[in-house]
Amino acid sequence: MIEDDDLGYDGAHIIEVLCEDANDEYLAWLRSVGISYIFAGRTEMDLSLALSKLNSLFNIRTLLLEGGSVLNGSFAREGLIDELSLVTAPVTADPDDLPLLSKSSIHSWDLESVSDRSGILVSKYSKKRDC
Fold first, then answer.
1. What are residue 117's DSSP bridge partners?
2. Residue 109 lies in a domain
3. Mean pLDDT of 16-29
4. Shared-domain flag, residues 57 and 108
5. Coil, helix or strand for 88?
6. Span 89-102, average pLDDT
7. Is 3 exposed, middle or buried, given 0-12, 13-18 or 19+ CB atoms closer than 10 A?
8. What letter does residue 9 receive in the DSSP assignment?
């Protein structure tokens, strides 16, 4: 379980998504601490399979991607992101920071809403139906 003061996280069940070539000692450790795991791919992650298993085994229908550029880009390349929320704040970034979706293909989005939260813009988009 996750121990965190952030709303929605405390007590959340941890599920590790692994490739089948995962180390047996690591799997034993996961079992010993009560962390569930699934396999999604032999030596490389199959994100579609992972989502299918998360749905069928744990009834998970929606995920929030809070990964970095590489994780977000991997889901985008597979066409597995159907909603995008962008937070725009008046802050400059480090020139070495990665983009939101690393090595992603181009997708089109429909703007659903924009809200101003004390000078920070939150824009919500849905994936275009024709894509």
1. 120
2. yes
3. 96
4. no
5. strand
6. 77
7. exposed
8. T
The span from the CA of 38 to the CA of 5, in Å, is: 27
- The DSSP element (H or E) to which 80 belongs, if any, is none
Instruction: Give the integer Cα–Cα distance in Å for 39 and 87.
Output: 33
Helix (H, G, I), strand (E, B) or coil at 123: strand
**The pLDDT of residue 97 is above 60:** yes
Q: What is the pTM of this model?
A: 0.73
Q: How many domains does the chain have?
A: 2
Comparing 5 with 56, which gets the higher pLDDT? Answer: 56
User: Do residues 50 and 6 share a domain?
Assistant: yes
Same domain for 51 and 1: yes
The position carrying tokens 């597979």 is 78
11 within a domain of the structure (yes/no): yes
Q: φ, ψ for residue 18 (rounded to 5)?
A: -130, 165
Query: Has residue 115 been placed in a domain?
Result: yes
Question: Is residue 73 included in any domain, yes or no?
Answer: no
The pLDDT tens digits of the residues spanning 2-21 come to 676 776 666 678 899 999 99
* Terminal-residue alpha carbon distance, the chain: 37
> Does 58 lie in the same domain as 3?
yes
Write out the residue range of the structural domain in which residue 22 sits.
1-63
Structure tokens at 88: 């725009």
